[in-house]
Amino acid sequence: MAIAASYNAKQMEEKWYNYWMENDYFHSEVNDKKPYTIVIPPPNVTGVLHMGHMLNNTIQDVLIRRARLLGYNACWVPGTDHASIATEAKVVAKLKAEGIDKNTISREDFMKHAWDWTDNYGGVILSQLKKLGASCDWERTKFTLDEQLSSSVIKSFVDLYNKGLIYRGYRMVNWDPEAKTTLSDEEVIYEERQGLLYYIAYPIENSDEKVVIATTRPETIFGDTAVCINPNDERFTHLKGKKIIIPVVNRVIPIIEDEYVDMEFGTGCLKVTPAHDENDKVLGEKHQLEVIDIFNDDASLNSYGLHYEGKDRFEARKLFVKELEEKGFLVKTENHTNKIGTSERTKAVIEPKMSDQWFLKMEQLAKPAIEAVLETEDIKLFPEKFKNTYSHWMNNIRDWNISRQLWWGHRIPAYYYAEGKNDFVVAETIKEALKLAQEKTNNSALSEKDLRQDEDALDTWFSSWLWPMSVFDGINNPDNEEFNYYYPTNDLVTGPDILFFWVARMIMAGYEYTGERPFKNVYLTGLVRDKQRRKMSKSLGNSPDALKLIDDYSADGVRVGLLLSSAAGNDLMFDEALCQQGKNFGNKIWNAFRLVNSWDISEDKAQGENEKIAIEWYRNKLQETLVEIEDHFSKYRISDALMATYKLIWDDFCSWLLEAAKPNFNESIARKTYEEIINLFEENLKILHPFMPFLTEEIWQNISERTSNEALIIASWPETKTIDKKLLSDFEETKEIVSAVRKIRKEKNISFKEELELFVLNNDVKQAAIIQKLGNITTIEKIDTAKENSLTFRVNAVEYYIPFSESIDVDAEITKLTEELKYQEGFLKSVQKKLSNERFVNNAPDQVVAIEKQKEADAQAKIEAIEKSLANLKN
After folding, report:
1. Cis peptide before 383 (omega within 30 of 0)
2. Spatial distance between the Cα atoms of 223 and 294, rounded to a whole number of angstroms
3. Res. 309 pLDDT band, cuts 50 70 90
4. How far apart (Å, rounded) are the C-alpha atoms in residues 559 and 691?
5. pLDDT tens digits for 477-496?
6. Which of 35-44, 742-751, 865-874 has the lowest mean pLDDT?
7. Could you give all domains of the chain from N- to C-terminal order, each with its CATH number?
């Protein structure tokens, strides 16, 4: 058949993806096969494909496609996350652009806008994943706000509340002033920033004395309710029991004593602002101090900020410092580096804030999750180094703040029947809530109109921690057939940055609701960085357009480019050259297909010895590589598995097998040889398919006649057989001999068309037919004395001779070899000098000494070979 000179990736990618979809190859149903299940880390519904998604989903697709080939009932569940903070921010921005303020419309109206936005713009990333070749079961696509998943979340909340694990408490929380919501501790990223330490003089009441206090946040002075000294600090003994006046504010506050104060920091005096610092809050509770919240929800100052009311906190800081300086309260400033908490989502600087919020007790939930990963290893992390991170987080776990001041998300199922803080009931529906409220108040006259549902939504992670269960309806209906079949899932592929946010919490939820692990293995990918090791981001402008990369290099090329340098847990230094390398690999395979397809087949021709040897060698090489690939996959070294496949096909198949077996110019190939090579080509396509699905399916469908039941995507992984290691070892020696002959031809400008003779000193050649074919050698003869007037080389201590060709310039060759001899003698002398140094030999590691001794032996062998070659030339 006629095969195109070049592979048209765009055309073939669309063609084969549609073919796979039309034939339902991605879809899974419960059957009697062993399941292999992956749930996608649901990307934000607002998201678009970026390099991290490309890497993560390529790895998942490799695993799921390989599982299909291995005969599993492979199920990859896709979906998106409603992403409360990110999505609400986008909807608010859209409304603002239309002249609508969120605060002026009802929750119902806002939710309508949010759903319209989601329907119009959400889920784009899933369609983009199809361009990458992701073989998800699209019929199972889930969204965390789908009715089934939403009811799972609400049911879970009610269950945990009834178990006493969820409670409402007034506590210090992390406040994101941009998103205007609380965040859990894990959503706060701490960054070191250069700032200032302000030294401010506080007047003592009824005294001319002032006490200097150092602070990094002078704007919080408006919320001071005490000044604290260490009772052991003799410098301030005279201040005990006195009161102090807040500068500018002129409010009188007490001086308190507590050993918490670090006498070495600043001036040894501490301003106490219980509403805006976790440690100050503890001091405030201990000493029963007033709590004054000075900020509005957007972190502008409220009425406690006096004439700075309405000013942003950072603007207020500048203006207030200027006023303090003008009025003589600012003593000095110093440069100071401290850690600032920022929002993981909006990047805004976090404000500590006292607030009534919903919390989930974590200590009890964490215990089985700690045991599963760190003790029994029922769940394995790859690479193992992340066990330390997991251990630190889990053994220092704090209660989870699960409420958010947002509308987009799962609304907390708590219903208030009166104005009191604790006048509420928790239920899945308002009807159930009414019944509980009537029982709690002993008031049957209460109606649904008397109930008011909590305004807050749940943290997005509170839905996604149920993801492996909720996608199979395992929370609502734990005995359903699909849940019992597909759960627990097999592998989870995600980034280490959400090891606690998502992975650890899924493990906790899994054991809480099923008593089982949610997955067996967690493969933690690295981050995709640029060549300067910077994390790729839109703000830096260093992240390439993912879809353009696919257009430029093909989906297969990008997949290979990403994976070749992506060892588990190690960051990938992305370079477009990697994608070009992937594209070049695809072209190499396509050209190999074209070559094999161009051969004329002879029904009568007998198989040559060179063909027999090469085919048998490659069968064994393929088996050896299958064992290596299996080992890599078992350890989640996906990059290494690809590299083993890459070398097998590029080097062993294309460069050695096809060259050794292909017919000479204008000759045909034996039918037996052709069919055996086609069979080996097909085996190659099977192990390459998970990495390069489009190209391999195209070649598979054209290399033989196929029915829809014979598509490569549902073929069978190659069977493992006994390996003839002796044959492999012999062929490695043969390759060295061929390479040496080719090197001589290249160095001496001997055309490949020129036939040569090869003589071997006191040794038999095991695979002479291959050497003759690939070296264009007419005869190979065993001799018992050195062959004069010959070029010589050595392989495994055996001497080989090639008689002079008339085209060789003998004098030039003698000059060249003499220079090489001089270099090798100098090198040998330097190595022997090092080995004669007793201090080096006695103190250096055994491995280092062994390397130097090997260098000595190699140099001596080269010198001997050069001297023989010179002797032959001079004779």
Report:
1. yes
2. 6
3. very high
4. 7
5. 999 999 999 999 999 999 99
6. 865-874
7. 181-351 (3.90.740.10), 546-723 (1.10.730.10)
**What would you report as the CA-atom Rg of the chain, rounded to the nearest whole angstrom?**
37
First to last CA, the chain: 57
CA 439 and chain centroid, separation: 51
Question: What number of other Cβ atoms are within 10 A of residue 806's Cβ?
Answer: 5
Q: To which residue do tokens 């050259």 refer?
A: 577
Token pair in block for residue 746: 């290249």
Would you give the DSSP letter of residue 43? P
Instruction: Identify the three-state secondary structure at position 742.
Output: helix
Find all residues with CB under 8 Å of 329, minimum gap 6, and list them: 200, 201, 202, 247, 248
The candidate with the shortest Cα–Cα distance to 197, out of 333, 313, 316, is: 333
Q: Alpha-carbon dihedral of residues 776, 780, 784, 789, nearest 10 degrees? A: -30
Write down the pLDDT at residue 565: 75
Provide mean pLDDT across the span 139-150.
97
Q: Rounded CA gap, 480 and 152, in Å? A: 14
**Long-range pairs for 617-620: beta carbons < 8 A, 24 or more residues apart:** 617/657, 617/727, 617/728, 617/731, 618/652, 618/653, 618/656, 618/657, 618/680, 619/680, 620/723, 620/724, 620/725, 620/727, 620/728
Buried b / exposed e along 557-581 (16+ C-beta atoms within 10 A): bbbbbbbbbbbbbebbebeeebbeb
Phi-psi region of 189 (alpha: psi -120 to 50; beta: other; left: phi over 0): beta
Which residues are CB-neighbours of 61 under 8 A, at least 6 positions away?
76, 132, 133, 134, 135, 559, 690, 693
- Angstrom distance (rounded) from CA 707 to CA 701: 9
d(CA 32, CA 574): 42
- Side chain identity, residue 787: K
Q: For the chain, what is the mean pLDDT? A: 92
Percentage of the chain lying above the pLDDT 70 cut:
98
Residues facing 339 on adjacent strands: 192
Question: Alpha-carbon distance 558 to 815, whole Å?
Answer: 49
pLDDT at 538: 59
Q: How many angstroms separate the Cα of 338 from the Cα of each of 217, 274, 341?
A: 11, 20, 10
Confidence bin at 806 (pLDDT 50/70/90):
low
CA-CA distance, 807 to 796, in Å (whole number)? 29
2-43: per-residue pLDDT in tens?
A: 677 788 899 999 999 999 999 999 999 999 999 999 999 999
Contact 351/173 with Cβ under 8 angstroms?
no
pLDDT at 185: 81
Q: Give the pLDDT score at 367.
A: 97
Residue found under tokens 């062994």: 850
Is a pLDDT exceeding 80 seen at residue 813? no
Structure tokens at 458: 């749940």
Distance CA 404, CA 826 (A): 75
Distance, CA of 233 to CA of 422 (rounded, Å): 44
- State which amino acid sits at residue 743: K
How far is 45 from 464, CA to CA, in rounded Å? 13
What predicted TM-score, i.e. pTM, was given to this entire model? 0.86
Q: Is 615:678 a contact under the CB 8 Å cutoff?
A: no
Rama region for 151: left / alpha / beta (φ>0; ψ in -120 to 50; rest) = alpha
Q: Per-residue pLDDT tens for 56-77?
A: 999 999 999 999 999 999 999 9
Token couple for 582: 């992937």
- In 3-state terms, what secondary structure has residue 580? helix
Distance CA 316, CA 626 (A): 67
Amino acid at 376: T
List the one residue out of 649, 652, 673 whose CA is nearest residue 662. 673
Residue 404 contacts residue 181 (beta carbons within 8 Å): yes
Confidence of residue 539 (pLDDT cuts 50, 70, 90): low
Instruction: For residue 280, name the pLDDT band (cuts at 50, 70, 90).
Output: very high
Q: Where are the alpha helices (DSSP H) in 233-297?
A: 278-286
Does residue 869 surpass a pLDDT of 80? no
